[in-house]
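idk why but the lab printer keeps eating my pages so im just putting this in chat instead. protein + NDP:
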Amino acid sequence: MKRTALISGATSGIGQAIAELFAKNDFNLILTGRRNNKLIDLKEKIERDSGSEVYILNFDVRDNSQVNKAIDSLPEKWKDIDILINNAGLASGLDPIQEGDIEDWEKMIDTNIKGLLYLTRKVSPVMVSRKKGHIINIGSIAGKEVYPNGNVYCATKHAVDALTKAMRIDMLPYNVKVTQIAPGMVDTEFSTVRFHGDKTRADKVYEGLTPLYASDIAEIILFAVMRPAHVCLNDIVVTPTAQASGINVVRNK
Ligand code: NDP
Ligand code: 8X3
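predcted complex ->
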């Protein structure tokens, strides 16, 4: 029987790549995001190209009532979620703390921490009652160290790091695995969102090096969920070969 994976933030980047790879590997998928047209297109593409079924849920993870309503609306056959991938997230702005934009801060805290918590709070009881499941949190190298002007984004990803460890302890009696994957630079819409739509500035982030691609992260997550029942990968940090830390990067001249 196919396992069901819920992927938050499946409308682009890492979430979309996970959806496409999981569909080729016999999972049914619940895909979420705010851009409904992208969800509809992705559902059509996946169902056309694979034997997987897709259910889409269009909501904002920052709104707990939307999260609850969306998950409650799942038809019976979709309720037994085997894998929850907490991927929806963003950076907004890259400014020193004294010049930070409060709206940017709230967006990051509400999405990366509170959104992840709302979804986990709603979905994890199903896993607990079935005594099986796997929660994958997408952290970041920014959750392992801080870098100049990364302040609040780094703090939110440090929170994901801490919550992943805490969840693993809380889930321990219930046979639920909890894994974090913490990537360095991945070429997605991430930097365009961080720079509020400034694509030229975003492209510079990846100039002169080969970044990670969303598909690289999807492959690692697939590896993690395909481990046998007795194996739980706890924490995976992955960077491009050209990156050694949040700030140490080599670029071709
Ligand atoms: P993208 O911007 O390409 O994708 C982000 C996804 O999150 C989109 O599908 C977006 O969907 C969704 N999302 C954002 N805000 C909300 C919200 N309020 N409610 C619901 N969905 C939301 O970036 P990535 O794929 O790179 O990012 C995915 C995750 O990976 C994030 O958690 C990010 O922090 C993390 N990460 C990224 C790295 C990188 O270098 N790219 C490195 C390390 C970690 P929509 O806009 O349709 O709602
Ligand atoms: C995204 C990676 O280095 O831009 O989480 O913070 S980084």
